[in-house]
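Not sure how to ask, but would you mind making up any protein sequence you like and the tokens describing how it folds?
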Amino acid sequence: MSVSEREVSNRKVLEREVSGLEVLEREVSKGGFSGREKTETEGKEFFSCGEAKKAAEKAMALLLFKDRTRHELVTRLYRAGFSETASSEAMEYVERFGYINDRRYVENYVMFQKGKKSRREMVYQLTERGIEGEVISEVLEECEYDGEQEAIRMLLKKKLKGRLLCETSYEERQKMMAYLGRKGYEFHTIKKVFSQLDNEGKKV
């Protein structure tokens, strides 16, 4: 399910005031998970106890408002007071039908953040959300992420506020370079963009 499709679905769900688990069960019964084969457990009682079912309801309610990593969702369930067994069954339930997928999360994150964040900053933030480094690296390589120069230009545009880069002082340029370095951009990439803007001789 794409991000836009999920947003539309979320609005409809909120309007009808139904629980997250009811949404999932309705979609499964309609065969709404395109490309997924039915599992042996479909149509059978999935949970071993009432607490596990409540944990799944909580998980789905959280996912309706925001896409989350596996680590984030597990943490929220523990904080809500669910036992390890109940949380584990709930996670297995939402993962079985593709409502949570760390690889997809990284793909969507990179798609929306490229041109805004450095590769290093994205890796750091995704790691903080509990995603394995191998998954992050694979997605970044497959996406052939090359948006750092554009991201630097966007950040400079905010800093310059309509001025030309060539109009700034040496001290200002050094401060902007240091700022971009702290954001995770490589120095050689920063210098390349500065050189391009100086040569263009126009506003960012």
